[in-house]
Amino acid sequence: MPHPATGVTRRTAARTAAAAGLAVLFGATAAEGRARAATRLGPRTLDLSVPSAALGRSAPVRLILPTGFDTDTGRTYPVLYLLHGAHDDYTSWTRETDIEAFTEGRDLIVAMPDAGPTGIPTAWRSGPDYETFQVEEVPRLLAREYRASGRRAVAGVSTGGYGAMAHAARHPGAFAAAASYSGVLDTTAPGVPTIMDAIVAREGLSPATLWGNPLLNLLTWRDFNPRARAEGLRGTALYVSQGSGLAGGGGDPLPQVLESALWPSAHSFTDRLALLRVPATTHFYAGGGHSWAYWKGEFRASWPMLAGALGVPE
Question: Phi/psi at 158 (nearest 5 deg)?
Answer without folding.
Answer: 55, -120
